[in-house]
């Protein structure tokens, strides 16, 4: 067990000394593979990398980044937040709360959370900062709510859990709705309370309330954004496109809005939008590929498996086992990517869960709630890096510090749904 | 004691498909000659990276779905040829370890440095055409104009020949695609249907045997020859068990006793193809067989088909 | 030498932009043809999936050239100048080794795929040598870039600044 610890120390050390995240993940994973398998292990590094990225579902990531950047060239984001600030001027933290709402809507559009963070973050963070919001609230609200895409259907993690556990994908999708909305509301509530206690973190628009006419006019400025949501959601729910493909429609729609409606896309702007989109997508995908090298090392030496197996051997009351399982999953989620976490731990934990008398459907739901935490916890927390990718004005360490309280909220919600399974089961069982 | 590293991309929840592989690994692990380091569910390697890993010696054995690699290893195409699979499936002895067809396949694999220790004793029940309420397919003529999700190279051309549009979408998006009408139907083995709960979105199955696959246990000739007597004996014995029980358990127990009842209970209408439809399929797929024979060589191809059809021995 | 390298890295980056545009257009086209004419392409899914690998691997060197890869600078910023130089050197060397191994094994992967005639078992049937070849190309360039970083660190040249400001300019 000494080698995995060494590898994790190397990972954290390299990240601490300023190595690119992809390199820290790739090099420490490769070292681990080498210690475990000798020179033969070199084979696994490029195949892990290639296998991770060779997946059509990931296509949504670069395309939603492109969509976000195209919109960034237009006043659409500004108009949206202008309208939100006029209409929600009475609400402390209103803009961050709208951001959570936007992420939830985006969650219905996308099945992978990094795509949501990229699209919402590139618009929401600059707007919030412009309006005097603290960097902590701006970064934390986007990074944590972006993960809602996994809980709100369509959801790639639910599909994978369905295949691994045999639970109905349809029921899982429906089962994710209540926890997804509950988590979104909890994040909003947290923002509201925090903004009320620290008004300087989320300033209200001072001055008199804007007259109704002006507020109505502001609403007129958001139809482009609504059109885009309509295009993407419409493409999915009408069956024109699958969720991954719908991202291409979103990007094309944004191109139309920028090029035809606002006429802001001259050749120079257009190429610079594409240049930065490709750069950011490349940087994030590179991290995802290398995270898999690291994850496959842990899988090869069976770290997640051994942790899960150790848990099944404890002699505690049911609720105690559950709490420990959840804590262990949160810890594993710091090191392992979301898909590995499902695929590796489910076959070992599920039999225990069933023996304890719990519903596999419920376990899938709380497992994905765990993933909501896993994607924002360092050192392997892809949403953190995705947010940094689309918001160069934020530093990674700033983002990490910002999400800590949000993770706490997520964990409380997770515990509520763990200890009261009926909360998540009533809706799928109704249908 | 030598450690043999093996992989499968299938999760254990694909019960019918992994019954054989799990049993093999269990038996091999119990032997005194070797220890087994086994990774299923694609934990170590994704499906597409298994063959390269085996060839480069990074792993010692793999279970692989034949249809995933028929274009890299053309001889395996015999397990998926329309017009052939029904006869092959009905006669398990034809693909058994040591049968003439089995040996012929291994002769061809040997040229590429591969060795197949077993094809689980048979191919699995063929892939049929499953369709939604909105776009029912109950006969050959119904196929015309439908959007059909097909993976298999062998089935694609046949389905297109009947006037359908062959659609490629990832299996993770198939559920939603059927629900939303992005596709009207899917060519699939019943394990894929149950494994992804697709029965929730389907309304009828038209049992036209369009293609099929088996799950083979592969190693390289190099690795096989490097094994000691004891190791080879242990591996061979476990493979014998797999050959005896793998496909048999799926085809004769799990499918009829568990999976098809789930399909019926889901209210899915089961339609047997008429004799004319089967004959039409046979005729329509002649081109696919021709193309395949060309690829593997006329002599080998014709011999393999004759063995599979039972028209020679 | 460095100049030629820069040109190639930039060319890969521009190719990446073309790829992104290609993805957007072909995926829309494929879905449109499927929905309206029931006539989807056989290649869109397959090619676009491989292009994700393209975007990740082929742009890596150019992103490293401009020091735009995502990283945490909080702790190194507190170090002295010579300690910072030393860290840069160590990271560049590790980066060189890692990228060189990825290149070397990538070459073997592509070569074996070529040798064996590996293809996707679909009707389009992409020969796997092409997507696999993206790895050695991209990581080979990245290894060179880390070599330049190492040389810069040894000679005490300041790292090229993070010019990743384009997002804010728009
Ligand atoms: N050629 C085949 N149909 N192979 C089996 C494919 C099964 C796999 N789950 C899929 O649908 O993608
Ligand atoms: Na979603
Ligand atoms: Na994490």
UniProtKB/TrEMBL annotation, chain A:
GO CC annotation: plasma membrane
Lineage: Bacteria, Pseudomonadati, Pseudomonadota, Alphaproteobacteria, Rhodobacterales
Sequence similarity: Belongs to the TRAP transporter large permease family.
InterPro entries: DctM (IPR010656), TRAP_DctM (IPR004681)
Organism, as annotated: Thalassobacter stenotrophicus
Function noted in UniProt: Part of the tripartite ATP-independent periplasmic (TRAP) transport system.
Assembly and interaction partners: The complex comprises the extracytoplasmic solute receptor protein and the two transmembrane proteins.
TM segment ranges: 6-35, 56-76, 96-125, 137-160, 172-193, 218-240, 246-265, 277-295, 307-331, 338-356, 362-387, 399-427
UniProt keywords, alphabetically: Cell inner membrane, Cell membrane, Membrane, Transmembrane, Transmembrane helix, Transport
Membrane-related topology note: Multi-pass membrane protein
Coiled coil, from the record: none
Gene: siaT_13
Gene Ontology MF term list: transmembrane transporter activity
Taxonomy, superkingdom: Bacteria
The keyword Membrane belongs to this UniProt entry's keyword annotation: yes
Residue ranges of domain TRAP C4-dicarboxylate transport system permease DctM subunit in the record: 8-423
UniProt-recorded name of the protein: TRAP transporter large permease protein
UniProt key word Lipid biosynthesis: no
TrEMBL record, chain C:
Name of the featured protein: TRAP transporter small permease protein
Keyword Cell inner membrane included in the entry's annotation: yes
Lineage: Bacteria, Pseudomonadati, Pseudomonadota, Alphaproteobacteria, Rhodobacterales
Membrane topology: Multi-pass membrane protein
Family statement drawn from the similarity comment of this UniProt entry: Belongs to the TRAP transporter small permease family.
Subunit structure: The complex comprises the extracytoplasmic solute receptor protein and the two transmembrane proteins.
Entry's Gene Ontology BP terms: C4-dicarboxylate transport
Transmembrane segments: 12-37, 43-61, 89-108, 128-148
Keyword Ligase: no
Origin species: Thalassobacter stenotrophicus
Keywords for the protein's UniProt record, in alphabetical order: Cell inner membrane, Cell membrane, Membrane, Transmembrane, Transmembrane helix, Transport
Domain Tripartite ATP-independent periplasmic transporters DctQ component: 23-152
Pfam families: DctQ
GO cellular component: plasma membrane
Broad class of the protein's primary localization: membrane
GO terms of molecular function: transmembrane transporter activity
InterPro entries in the record: DctQ, TRAP_DctQ
Subcellular location, record wording: Cell inner membrane
Free-text function comment from the UniProt entry: Part of the tripartite ATP-independent periplasmic (TRAP) transport system.
